[in-house]
Amino acid sequence: MFVDQVQVFVKAGDGGNGIVAFRREKYEPMGGPAGGDGGRGGDVIFEVDEGLNTLMDFRYQKHFKATRGENGMNKSMHGKNAAPLVVPVPPGTTVKNADTGKVIADLIEHKQRAVIAKAGRGGRGNIHFSNARNRAPEIAENGEPGEELYVQLELKVLADVGLVGFPSVGKSTLLSVVSAAKPKIADYHFTTLNPNLGMVRTEDDRSFVIADLPGLIEGAHEGVGLGHQFLRHIERTRLIVHVVDMSATEGRDPYEDYQTINQELEQYDERLMERTQLIVANKMDMPGAEEQLEQFKEHFDGSQKIFPISALTKSGLSNLLYSIADTLEKIPKNAFETQEEDLQDERVIYRHEKDDESFRITRDPDGAYVLTGPQIERLFKMTDFNRDESVRRFARQMRHLGIDEALRKRGAEDGDIVRLLDFEFEFVE
Predict the structure, then answer these.
(1) pTM (2 decimals)?
(2) Is 192 annotated as a binding residue?
(3) Residue 251 among known ligand-binding residues
(4) Is residue 311 marked as binding?
(5) Annotated binding-site residue? 170
(6) Region labeled Disordered — which residues (predicted)?
(7) Predicted local confidence at residue 43, as pLDDT
(8) 414-426: per-residue pLDDT in tens?
(9) Residue 191 among known ligand-binding residues
(10) DSSP at 77
(11) Does residue 310 have a known ligand-binding role?
């Protein structure tokens, strides 16, 4: 089964907790704090594996969670950092944030990597909180939580040439005779259910990859037929080869077919019309094809070259393949690999979006005030509420963020309930 779109959940490892510890050695009665820091958690990294050509594996495993860092130890020993979780993906995979639709990474080359979910740092041990006023602090941080998010994976096949056209115009037959690919061929529409790739080598030893894409019909860009599922694969091809059935045995006009398919491509993505396109007049072995070809050519001014072929009898193929190879030599290999509007970095790896708001205050139906926001939630999770000093430090952090004043402005009074994640506090003046 060919799978080219799937949604998965990724969770980077949390940092290990820092600890509270003190030196207690024979000749060091006032040894001071010695609690070590926690180790960093493991990142979730996607890495391109050229041996893969489908997202099938993600149909059966949809949760990827990296391990957390080790907790700190006494004698100021640092906890061990966790190893990253490396997930192999096929070349041509685009990773998007499922909630926002923003592109996180566009993975194309073998062994290319992108950090999809960033791990949390380890919490600091009490050696970091010692100062002149408090030489024996009983305070340490919990590890920072790792990022977690749902991501949408889209596979866009990496081919030099994309074959487009109505169903049953001979695209699969053409691919089968010019390459070693063995696509399914039959006398009915939508025989091709998945993109097929074939390596073509010309007689002068030039090579390129052709993708046979499922047939398009009118309305494909809106979800009609099967072609709409695979229009995304055309985006990465450098050259479009438009195959037209010149025999008109199905009662359709070849030029109307040509216009219909181009309209579908344009309505899916206007930039596809900037792509170089070669027209292939197939089934020239059929009766009436020559007359249809002459009528077809009348719609062009002569600048558009049309290649009459018969994939069945293999006539005209050499001229077509040479022309494809010549055209590809004029188009840079990475000309259309990164056309996403969201791409911002030359390395094609992108940073996660940052939420500018440190906190937000809302009200529940029962009147309780609800605190949300990435920064306050992160501080809360890194606080060890089993130690009074840690609780007092968290209260100072909330005041520093302006949460106390913001609650007063919202009307909070002494004794009101404040919720943060799954916990409740009393607002105290």
Answers:
(1) 0.68
(2) yes
(3) no
(4) yes
(5) yes
(6) 69-89
(7) 95
(8) 888 888 888 888 8
(9) yes
(10) B
(11) yes
In which band, very low, low, confident or very high, does the pLDDT at 364 lie, cut at 50, 70 and 90? confident
> Is residue 215 annotated as involved in ligand binding?
yes
Residue 1 pLDDT: 42
**pLDDT at 120 (0 to 100):** 93
| Ramachandran angles phi, psi of 297, nearest 5° | -65, -25
- Which of the two residues, 174 and 228, has the higher pLDDT score? 174
Q: Which two tokens stand for residue 319?
A: 């001229």
410: tokens are 């919202």
- 246 labelled as ligand-binding? no
Query: Which structure tokens are listed for 325?
Result: 């190879």
At a CB cut-off of 8 Å and minimum separation 6, what does 288 contact? 247, 248
- How many residues does this entry show for the chain? 429
Alpha helices by DSSP H, 345-402: 374-381, 388-401
Task: Confirm if 281 and 309 have CB atoms less than 8 A apart.
Answer: yes
Ligand-binding annotation for 312, yes or no, is: yes
Number of helical (H) and strand (E) elements in the chain, helices listed first: 7, 18
Q: Is 202 annotated as a binding residue?
A: no
- Contact in structure between 32 and 139 (CB atoms under 8 Å): no
Write the pLDDT tens digit of every residue in 373-394.
888 888 889 998 888 888 889 8
Query: Is position 162 annotated in a ligand binding site?
Result: no
- 165 assigned to a ligand binding site: yes
Residue 190 labeled ligand binder: yes
Is 284 annotated as belonging to a binding site?
A: yes
Residue listed under structure tokens 């094609």:
348
Helix then strand then coil, % of the chain, to nearest 5: 25, 25, 55
Which stretch of DSSP H or E encloses residue 281?
strand 276-282
